[in-house]
Structures are given as structure tokens and as C-alpha cells.
Design goal:
Blueprint (H helix, E strand, L loop, with lengths): L4 H24 L8 H17 L3 E4 L4 E6 L2 E6 L8 H7 L2 H10 L7 E4 L4 H10 L4 E5 L10 E4 L2 H12 L5 E5 L4 E8 L2 E8 L3 E3 L6 H13 L14 H9 L13 E3 L12 E3 L6 H14 L3 E8 L6 H4 L2 E7 L19 H8 L2 E2 L2 E2 L4
Antiparallel strand pairs: 1-2, 2-3, 4-7, 5-6, 5-7, 8-9, 8-13, 9-12, 10-11, 13-14, 15-16
Helix pairs in contact: 5-6
Length: about 375
């Protein structure tokens, strides 16, 4: 049974208000992604370097495209989009409830979750009431890059607000129990772990004069100047930002003391190099194999798997962790946008070798 008519009208009215607020916010911060010249130049540089590494020819094409040639093999690339997985698999993996069901059916840990729409928000409220931990509300489909995600949802009022916010990015929604621990991005190609990055939420440092909103603006302006670097995101002052600050007893208008570090979001998508560390050496064989099995279950060759765990030295089952997201066409900048770049893997190289049909530096024969 759906919502009463008056509630539907109320929620639709709130959606309009949220749309307007998001529109005003985008005037200040146009997009979570720096989709302009900075992003294009980063990927041009990354693929050109990878081409040089495998003695291939790099050809720059317009609007973020490039072509790389080696012998009689060539491939075309658009930023982080490459021709490895079937497009249908790429699209299917972006349906989060499907992914969760598939992994759960094969005994791979995911957080308890529920699919719902705004018309079914009462079911989501029941789910929230049954949990012993805060919950996360997000769009159920698509590559949202953190858009529409609200963490630390604990009350019915917060749930309704989070659901309306998520509905701006898709009518199909998910609520899942929030997993405790630290988030890691594990990049896989054909079942092999290429790199792992520990990702912490974005933060700003107080100066005793500026509000948190002003500090975020200053950080975003700093990132805008890093043309061609791996800092490809801005900090969004969205629902997750407001909830995170509220749980810490602050708001966007708060003025932190000088030197005080303030975590401004719980989702990690908007962080920067100082928040990321390459930690391939910390990932245990048990965790590596467990997550590799997830890629096999889903039939995806190239994937960025986001996990939350308290201990990467053991399996997710042993740590109480879970897979929270499977990213097809994963952004490579997560593995270059780190504080210890000298210790990370230049992941574009093995991906390019795959695209060019190379093995151990030798081009394979055509089948």
C-alpha cells in the first residue's frame, strides 16, 4: 500500500525545495567532479605516461579522448573509460541492490539493506528501527560518485530528509546499515589486485576566523588551481556534510579554532591526497581473495571495490566488514591522488597492457 495522497504531495513539495537548494549550492560549487580542463589533463598525462612505459604511441584526441597504438594493436580511451568489460556488465553492476543480492547469495559480506521508494518510506523506517547502528541512504542505481548519499541516519526525520535528497538522483533508493571501520578502494583486473588505497573522509583545518563553509570554499578554490593533478573532486556542502557536522555539534556556520581539524563529511568521495594512502602491502591474502571472488561472481574484469573494515589483515567475515560498493569503469585518480605516490602502483600501465593484448611485455597473437 502506498503513501496517502497528502503525504505524497508533501514529499513532492520537499523534493522541489531540495532541488532548489541543490541548484543554489551548485552556483557556489558547480559539481562534485572537476570535469573541466583539470580532469582532462590528468587523464591525458596518465595515459601518455602509461604508453611510454610500454613503448606505445600516444595520440591525443579532442575532448578527453586518446588513442594508443603498439604494433598492429590499438585502443581508444576516454578519461577512465576503457574497452575491457561488456557495456551490459558495466551497466548492470551499477544497480546496487542487484550487486548486494548476488554477493550475499555467494556468502560475500555486504551490509543488511532494503530497497524502497518515497512511496515506501514507511518500510525504510521499519528497517531503520530494527538496526542497532546508524544507516546510509543512497540512490539505488547509477554512478552517483557520492551524490545523494547520506550517512549516520539515525532518526525517522533524518531518514525522510535523506530519502528525499537521494531521490534527486533516482527514484529507486536503498537504505543499508552503516558498517564501522575504515574505507579502502581495491582495484582489480581479471581477478588480480592492482592496488589498494585507504581513504579517509575530507576535512578542513580551522584558522579561528573562517566558518566551515568558508574553509570548504577555500579548499575547493585550491583544488581548482591544480590543473592536471589527481585532485578531481570538490567538497560538496550536501546532506551528508550537514549531518556529519550536526553529529559533531557543528554547522557550516561554525568557526573552528585555529589548528582544529574538522571532518566535514563521512562519505570519502570528496577527499584529497592528504586523506589517502596507498596500502597494497597491508591487504591480506584472505581479504584479497575474498574480494576477487566478488568480481568473479559479478563477471566484471575491471572494478574498483569499496570495502569497509576495521582490519585489512583479515577477511571481511573475520573483521565484521563488508563490501559497500562495486564500481565499474572505476576512476583511476583514486590511486594517484595519494599522499605516498612513490609507494603506489601506476595502475594505468597494467590496464593498458591488457587493452593492447600484452603479456609479460610481449604482444599476444590474435585469436
Amino acid at each position: 500500500m502506498g503513501l496517502p495522497r497528502h503525504k505524497k504531495m508533501y514529499y513532492e513539495l520537499l523534493r522541489i525545495v531540495y532541488h532548489l537548494r541543490r541548484g543554489l549550492s551548485r552556483l557556489r560549487t558547480p559539481s562534485v567532479r572537476l570535469d573541466g580542463q583539470g580532469r582532462v589533463e590528468f587523464y591525458y598525462t596518465t595515459w601518455q605516461s602509461a604508453a611510454a612505459n610500454v613503448s606505445a604511441e600516444f595520440v591525443k584526441l579532442p575532448n578527453g579522448f586518446c588513442e594508443i597504438r603498439r604494433g598492429d594493436r590499438s585502443t581508444r580511451i576516454f578519461e577512465n573509460i576503457v574497452k575491457i568489460d561488456d557495456p551490459l556488465i558495466v551497466k548492470l553492476v551499477r544497480v546496487k541492490p542487484f550487486v548486494h543480492k548476488q554477493l550475499s547469495a555467494h556468502g560475500i559480506p555486504v551490509a543488511p539493506f532494503l530497497e524502497f521508494t518515497l512511496d515506501e518510506v514507511d518500510a525504510a523506517i521499519e528497517f531503520l528501527d530494527l538496526q542497532s547502528a546508524p544507516c546510509v541512504v543512497k540512490p539505488a542505481m547509477g554512478d552517483a560518485a557520492g551524490n545523494g548519499v547520506t550517512t549516520n541516519v539515525q532518526s525517522r526525520r533524518e531518514l525522510v530528509r535523506a530519502a528525499i535528497n537521494a531521490s534527486l538522483f533516482g527514484r529507486e533508493l536503498m537504505i543499508e546499515r552503516q558498517v564501522q571501520g575504515i574505507e579502502y578502494r581495491l582495484l582489480y583486473l581479471d581477478g588480480k589486485l592492482l592496488d589498494a588505497t585507504r581513504r579517509r573522509p575530507p576535512c578542513v583545518v580551522g584558522n579561528g576566523r573562517s566558518t566551515i563553509a568558508q574553509l570548504i570554499d577555500a579548499e575547493n578554490k585550491r583544488r581548482n588551481q591544480l590543473v592536471g593533478s589527481a585532485s578531481l573532486t570538490r567538497i560538496q556542502m550536501d546532506s551528508d556534510c550537514r549531518v556529519t557536522l550536526r553529529n559533531a555539534g557543528m554547522s557550516l556556520n561554525s568557526v573552528p579554532r585555529a589548528g582544529t581539524e574538522v571532518t566535514v563529511k563521512t562519505t570519502v568521495n570528496d577527499n584529497s591526497a592528504k586523506d589517502n594512502v596507498s596500502v597494497r602491502n597491508l591487504i591480506s591474502d584472505a581479504l584479497t581473495q575474498e574480494v576477487a571472488r566478488a568480481t568473479a561472481v559479478l563477471g566484471i574484469r575491471l572494478a574498483g571495490i569499496d570495502v569497509i573494515t576495521k582490519d585489512p589483515g583479515v577477511s571481511l567475515k573475520d573483521s565484521g566488514g563488508a563490501i559497500i560498493e562495486v564500481n565499474s569503469s572505476p576512476g583511476l585518480h583514486h590511486h594517484y591522488n595519494v599522499g605516498n605516490l612513490q609507494e603506489t602502483t601506476p595502475v594505468a600501465v597494467p590496464i593498458l597492457r591488457c587493452l593492447l593484448g600484452m603479456e609479460n611485455g610481449i604482444t599476444k597473437e590474435r585469436r
